[in-house]
Design brief:
The structure is a homodimer of 325-residue chains. The radius of gyration of chain A is 19 Å and the shape is globular. The first copy, chain A, has helices spanning 45-48, 50-54, 57-60, 65-71, 79-91, 109-117, 130-143, 155-168, 189-200, 208-222, 224-227, 233-240, 275-288, 297-303; strands at 2-6, 9-14, 16-21, 27-31, 37-38, 175-177, 183-185, 187-188, 246-250, 254-259, 264-270, 306-308, 314-320. In chain A, the strands form four sheets. In chain A, strands 4-3-11-10-9 form a five-stranded antiparallel sheet. Chain A has a four-stranded antiparallel sheet with strand order 2-1-13-12. In chain A, strands 5-8 form a two-stranded antiparallel sheet. In chain A, 40% of the residues lie in helices and 18% in strands. Chain A has a single domain (2-320), classed as Beta-lactamase, CATH 3.40.710. Chain A is of the alpha+beta class and 325 residues long. In chain A, helix 13 (275-288) crosses helix 14. Chain A is built from 14 helices and 13 strands. The first copy, chain A, starts with a strand and ends in a 5-residue tail after the last strand. At the A-B interface, strand 2, strand 5, helix 6 and strand 6 of A face strand 2, strand 5, helix 6 and strand 6 of B.
Chain lengths: 325, 325
Amino acid sequence: MVEVWRGPLAESLHAGHAVICDGNGEIVEAWGDPEAVILPRSSAKMIQALPLVASGAADAFSLSTERLALSCASHEGAPVHNAAVREWLADIGRSESDLICGPQPSRDKALKLGMIRDHEEPGRVLNNCSGKHTGFLTLTRHLGAGADYCDPDHPVQRACRSAFEEVTGLESPGFGIDGCSAPNFATTMSGMARAMAFYATAGQRGDLLSRSAVRLVEAMIAHPLLVAGEGRACTLLMQAANEPVAIKTGAEGYFIAILPERGLGISLKIADGATRASECAMAAILVRLGVLEAEHPDVKHFLNPEIRNWDGRVTGSVRPAPGVF
Amino acid sequence: MVEVWRGPLAESLHAGHAVICDGNGEIVEAWGDPEAVILPRSSAKMIQALPLVASGAADAFSLSTERLALSCASHEGAPVHNAAVREWLADIGRSESDLICGPQPSRDKALKLGMIRDHEEPGRVLNNCSGKHTGFLTLTRHLGAGADYCDPDHPVQRACRSAFEEVTGLESPGFGIDGCSAPNFATTMSGMARAMAFYATAGQRGDLLSRSAVRLVEAMIAHPLLVAGEGRACTLLMQAANEPVAIKTGAEGYFIAILPERGLGISLKIADGATRASECAMAAILVRLGVLEAEHPDVKHFLNPEIRNWDGRVTGSVRPAPGVF
């Protein structure tokens, strides 16, 4: 799917799977193996946030669209994200120590360097998943459930699994433990594309799960900066799009897109787990569909990024493999 | 070649090429495509250092075995490496500003954090290739050549290309510009394995190039810490080996090994460029050959590393694909 060039050579190559599904769960287009079993990692966050909305917890705690966007975010731990998560925790009577996700250094350069200079240790609020976890805590409080909300048998995770199986249309064959210690349920490439098409077409249906899905997609589209951060692929590609779309990365080369105006959902997995390739391939698919313009500088930055060396010299580039997309 | 597991799933997969050659340039064993054209990146440093020795420059400047090891190193910019490069530069009447490699932050954690706290900018001496470049500068001085020693037409680079083609046994089809701005010549997987077998069997021959190769291999084996650094794969695997071997990583998933006692050379390229996979696959090949013990903790650390999340919890592992090695 993706080539990494240096001088006269495609020095490294990335293969992968991708599926585009419509609202009937039919595969519109596919690359690689649509039945490959995968872990969607953080690309599943809008599914993990579904019980928060569908349960009534979001409304019981009057969650703003900003907080709904954060519940679906892999944010970079910039001051804007950290402050919003801290306020949300305070509003539900919880604190940083209630978060089960581990501590992660900020990916905001100024904050990261400032914390090193001040000998400040990274906290859990800075974890890219802290919004998702604050959503889990909100649902936990709403349900009056125990503190161990990442246990696969906890009511929150049982609700997540049920929502996941509902929108993917498949029983999950199992789960891995994610970077933030939450269970991450497995499905197939087509199952994940079907789930994203469920979100893309949710506005056409009136059931509770669909109405909840619409609110999450709209929140992501309304707040692209909260979903990721400055300079991040999800944020910049959502902002650059010709139409409202939700785009979400996941670890190990996962990526999804939700296209409400077309009723299409997209799942993408780079087999070797490389983010440089998943960003390039997702941009290529969205350019092919006309959702993104190849010449837009923020699109070009992910579709065809330059590789620079320590001296700042351009030594190569990443590009979609010819004839694939 | 390599699987990355999380819970019940091989979440990501890495494919690659590997070749083992003997001193006659014959392929003893191969995986993938032995004729794949590659850039060996920093795995070619002992070839880029060959003209330094063969020209007489190393002896003219009385280079120690430590300096010969540094000329083949991708060091981590720890104080031990930086001090040694600075002394070498002073001894040849050159300074940091004569190095063409760009500045790189130290990979030594304490030094890196200390420099951030002191608002110190990374310098060129800290670049992982600064030993190679100081070798280039030494040869440049010896030849009375111009300052632009990374120009492909500079006498130093013409000598590197000539040495490269001699030991690989092939005309190079071209070059890319490396992370340190030096040309990196292309060859095939078998060409690179043949070159490493040339080094492994150099002690059996008396010609100038072979005698120079022996000195570089012996320097690498004598100073594994200078070749990479504390906790690094090259250093730890050389130290853990049952016999004297030189092991050297390169960017984008490249790796080589030189086995003098067996007269064998090994080249390895992970197709997607992932270091986690090249370290695992090189360890697997050396375990299979009996050069490394799978149960040695420093070997296990690269052969079968645990993946831990932000909370320190083990969430998966990297392992050689079954039945491959």
